[in-house]
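=== Per-residue structure ===
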Amino acid sequence: MATWGKRAAAILIDLVLLFVPTYVITTVVTRGAATPTGTIGSQNIPSQYWVSFGLSFVVVLGYFAFCDGNRRGQTVGKLALGIAVRDLASGGPIGAGRAFARRLFFFGLYFLFILPFFINILWPLWDPRKQGLHDKIVNSCVVDIR
């Protein structure tokens, strides 16, 4: 199983890589929008920011669903660190649907509940199979392939 450090480094690489398309989306969609004055729950935030957020979220989820769900089970970050997402039972790929659900759960915890998100991130440190809660939900694991 992949170590927590490799998993953390891989997600950081992926998030740095994903910064470029999400920045471009935000810049294009919000061009000319008024500066937001409210908070997330406020109606003062222009709709362009919500559209930008939604499009960026779709791009990020699509990236992880495609990369983690393909036969290699690797995003760019995982490829760089020699780790891959695999089905816990068979050791094969998990497919795009399960990869999508895995990442949706991961980011859903972040947007809805910060404390469970951090528990999920740290869970592989004490789990015997080094699985995060998002891995347990779809019966996947992250393995070291080097």
Summary: The two ends are 11 Å apart (CA to CA). Residues 92 and 119 are 27 Å apart (CA to CA).
